[in-house]
Amino acid sequence: MASAWITVVVLTGFWGVIGIIVPWFIPKGPNRGIIQTMLVMTAVCCYMLWLCTFLMQLNPLIGPELETKVIRAIKMEWEGQ
User: Fold this and answer.
1) How many Å apart are CA 52 and CA 45, to the nearest integer?
2) What is the DSSP string of 6-38?
3) pLDDT digits (tens, 9 = 90+) for 4-52
4) In the chain, where are the structural domains located?
5) How far apart are CA 3 and CA 25, in angstroms?
6) Could you give the CA distance from residue 66 to residue 30 in angstroms, rounded to a whole number?
7) What whole-number distance in Å separates Cα of residue 26 and Cα of residue 36?
8) Residues 36/25, Cβ–Cβ less than 8 Å
9) How far apart (Å, rounded) are the C-alpha atoms in residues 56 and 72?
């Protein structure tokens, strides 16, 4: 579970840099505001997509639905009885 937290911290830092730090280094020009907005929105959307996907895989809500007979048959097959 510790590696999950490391992953979250690293990716949060990465998208934080893209969305917060990088827009300050955009050169002045007529489209600077649009480029800054695009960078921030891209960072937020990509981070939220990644975070939702990561958290859903960390604790899945839907598991396989098997009947008891099937589970027993699988257990017998795998144990070689």
Assistant:
1) 11
2) HHHHHHHHHHHIIIIIGGGGSPPSTTHHHHHHH
3) 889 999 999 999 999 999 999 999 999 999 999 999 999 999 999 999 9
4) 2-79
5) 32
6) 61
7) 7
8) no
9) 29
